[in-house]
User: Which sequence fits this backbone?
């Protein structure tokens, strides 16, 4: 025990920080989900009522569907686009490499508020930028995708892809640069070209990056909030509602912290379940270099 | 060594004297709000000039999500400031347990009859959502607003248009504006508040006060007049009175910017629009002294019918928190904000209308603005209520308005949904 004491002391600050900023808030939210709260709600212990309320709430299922669409579209599209851009930059540009990296990464570091306002205006019929170009070919847009219940979520997904593809690109840039030069040479000597080179050499070698992006993508999907809050606020009539906006409305606008906490706990469970599934089925090798860290 | 010690002592004394002695003794008052920071600075300056022993620390937040989340977190950790900005109804009710009743403070400051000086619509809104046996005022109103439709006068003159008196005329005006390349009646329908405002203008034209009764459970939301109001709301989209794609548009900043730039013919806002003329330059020719704007109330839906009455109420009010109750100076600033030199500064900036009678903006106010201001003040005493007491009802009404506008919900079904939520909330 004496020998182990320094080791425990070394990890103590990290454990304390984890308990204070992660474990305690999670426990607080779970406890809160078991109580009614707010001026217009009866207080006291309500058990699992909020969870049953969620399962009977049609908006909850709408949110789940939207979250599924968000993840199912954004994650693979960002990976494919980001990977392709990274490959083109790293293998087919020389002097302008840095310029292109910066250009494609720029949306990632742009304020979400700015991105939301600019895209809302781009989508707008009459005065939007897209409309200005559409005019050139004689088209008059009559709707904004953000105002169409059947299109709103896709309009937001497009903005998210535009903003975050640069992040996938950067990750793949790191992954591609970690592939040893001799492997590229060997592949070339063996005659690997085009699709064959991509599917047989590059994709397997950057698979740790892909796994990282998948994990980050799932977590990022569940954490999505500002773009939707600023562009549609989950509307029209919940058509683009996601967990972030729905929890915010329940907790901060309506003031039903009990139900908002139950929804937050469900999000936590979904994130946990998906992360465990990924690690079980895809392994935990997540570093760009592909070095095993199990 | 001695010299060094002397120099050090003098320096230390110099520094201490440079730090104003009064700053050390000044008592602090903390305030959080979403109220325009530049105007609040003027209010604070005027207050501090009158109370040199007091210092106000103001923290400005964007309303959503920053202010809402900051308040929630501070309430949970019992670290609310002395004074917080509030709106009547649901917002105030959420923090009722953290707020102090202001009845005795107000009576002591302004006399037992102080409520007679508050505009009736504001006074009625102060206790909205209180339990039936609770007549305490947890906020006091600083400014009121009247909802209206603003229009761009030069555009109307250029196109030979006049203010529409009926819905048919409104449709014609919108058509003319659209065909001339302008946005007709801009609606930021992605914002629930703007939809609520227009709906309440229409609902109060068809049945004054019915929407208020409905939210209190004294009349059904499914009343024929309210169904008609929702149908009229839907028609604004179908008849292209609102711009195409309105459901994806925001009133601020996009709509306000386009309106100020002269690209929009009409926009449903309120008396607060006048403050645009007091913003720092450069200002557009339309905004300059409000030369390019005038307002009207929603035109009569039926031929020979009445135009909408004024609808409005408290724009912003302030509450004294339980923490503020322990600070004897906090009330002084709150009183100044609602009925004193701090309010006067806000009015001079044309931020909005006063909630107490007897105030008007002073300073550099053009006759044009004075005339519009007077019209608002004349209408305010008999304005219909625009606030929804319970957030659940307000949220569902917002959802239904968007659903009806997009054609996914019928007006009757939509109001049935609002009724269900009202029943559940008031149970």
Assistant:
């Amino acid at each position: 025990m004496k020998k182990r004491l320094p080791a425990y002391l070394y990890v103590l600050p990290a454990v304390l920080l984890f308990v204070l900023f992660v474990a305690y808030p999670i426990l607080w939210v779970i406890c809160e989900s078991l109580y009614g709260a707010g001026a217009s709600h009866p207080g006291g212990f309500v058990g699992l009522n909020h969870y049953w309320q969620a399962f009977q709430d049609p908006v909850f299922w709408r949110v789940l569907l939207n979250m599924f669409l968000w993840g199912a579209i954004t994650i693979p599209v960002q990976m494919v686009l980001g990977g392709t851009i990274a490959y083109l930059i790293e293998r087919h540009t020389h002097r302008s490499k840095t310029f292109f990296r910066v250009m494609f990464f720029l949306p990632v570091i742009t304020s979400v508020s700015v991105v939301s306002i600019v895209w809302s205006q781009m989508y707008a019929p009459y005065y939007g930028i897209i409309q200005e170009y559409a005019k050139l070919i004689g088209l008059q847009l009559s709707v904004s995708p953000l105002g169409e219940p059947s299109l709103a979520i896709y309009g937001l997904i497009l903005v998210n892809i535009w903003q975050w593809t640069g992040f996938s690109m950067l990750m793949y840039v790191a992954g591609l640069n970690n592939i040893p030069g001799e492997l590229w040479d060997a592949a070339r000597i063996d005659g690997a070209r085009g699709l064959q080179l991509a599917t047989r050499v590059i994709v397997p070698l950057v698979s740790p990056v892909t796994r990282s992006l998948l994990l980050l993508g799932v977590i990022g999907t569940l954490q999505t909030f500002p773009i939707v809050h600023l562009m549609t606020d989950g509307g029209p009539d919940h058509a683009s509602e996601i967990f972030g906006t729905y929890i915010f409305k329940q907790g901060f606008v309506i003031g039903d912290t009990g139900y908002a906490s139950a929804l937050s706990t469900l999000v936590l469970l979904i994130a946990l379940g998906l992360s465990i599934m990924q690690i079980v089925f895809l392994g935990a090798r997540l570093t760009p270099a592909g070095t095993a860290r199990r | 060594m001695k010299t060094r010690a002397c120099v050090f002592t003098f320096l230390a004394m110099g520094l201490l004297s440079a730090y104003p002695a009064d700053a050390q003794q000044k008592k602090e008052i903390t305030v959080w709000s979403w109220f325009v920071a530049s105007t609040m600075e003027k209010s604070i300056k005027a207050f501090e000039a009158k109370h040199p022993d007091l210092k106000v620390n103001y923290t400005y937040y964007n309303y959503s999500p920053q202010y809402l989340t900051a308040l929630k977190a501070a309430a949970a950790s019992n670290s609310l400031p002395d004074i917080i900005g509030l709106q009547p109804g649901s917002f105030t009710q959420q923090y009722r347990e953290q707020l102090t009743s202001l009845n005795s403070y107000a009576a002591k400051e302004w006399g037992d009859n102080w409520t007679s000086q508050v505009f009736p619509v504001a006074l009625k809104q102060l206790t909205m959502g209180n339990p039936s046996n609770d007549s305490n005022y947890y906020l006091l109103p600083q400014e009121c607003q009247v909802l209206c439709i603003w229009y761009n006068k030069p555009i109307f003159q250029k196109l030979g248009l006049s203010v529409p008196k009926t819905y048919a005329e409104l449709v014609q005006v919108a058509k003319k504006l659209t065909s001339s390349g302008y946005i007709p009646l801009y609606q930021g329908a992605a914002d629930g508040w703007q939809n609520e405002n227009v709906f309440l203008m229409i609902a109060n034209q068809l049945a004054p006060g019915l929407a208020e009764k409905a939210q209190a459970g004294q009349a059904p939301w499914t009343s024929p007049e309210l169904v008609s109001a929702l149908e009229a709301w839907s028609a604004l989209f179908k008849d292209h009175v609102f711009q195409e794609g309105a459901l994806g548009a925001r009133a601020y900043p996009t709509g306000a910017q386009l309106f100020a730039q002269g690209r929009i013919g009409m926009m449903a806002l309120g008396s607060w629009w006048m403050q645009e003329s007091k913003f720092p330059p450069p200002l557009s020719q339309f905004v300059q002294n409000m030369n390019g704007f005038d307002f009207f109330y929603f035109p009569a839906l039926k031929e020979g019918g009445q135009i909408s009455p004024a609808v409005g109420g408290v724009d912003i009010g302030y509450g004294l928190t339980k923490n503020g109750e322990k600070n004897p100076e906090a009330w002084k600033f709150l009183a100044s904000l609602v009925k004193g030199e701090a309010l006067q500064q806000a009015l001079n900036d044309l931020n909005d209308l006063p909630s107490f009678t007897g105030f008007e903006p002073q300073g550099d106010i053009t006759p044009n603005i004075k005339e519009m201001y007077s019209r608002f003040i004349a209408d305010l005493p008999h304005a219909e209520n625009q606030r929804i007491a319970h957030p659940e009802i307000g949220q569902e009404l917002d959802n239904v308005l968007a659903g009806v506008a997009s054609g996914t919900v019928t007006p009757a079904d939509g109001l049935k949904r609002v009724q269900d939520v009202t029943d559940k909330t008031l149970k």
The mean pLDDT of chain B is 92. Residues 2-18 of chain B form the longest helix (17 residues).
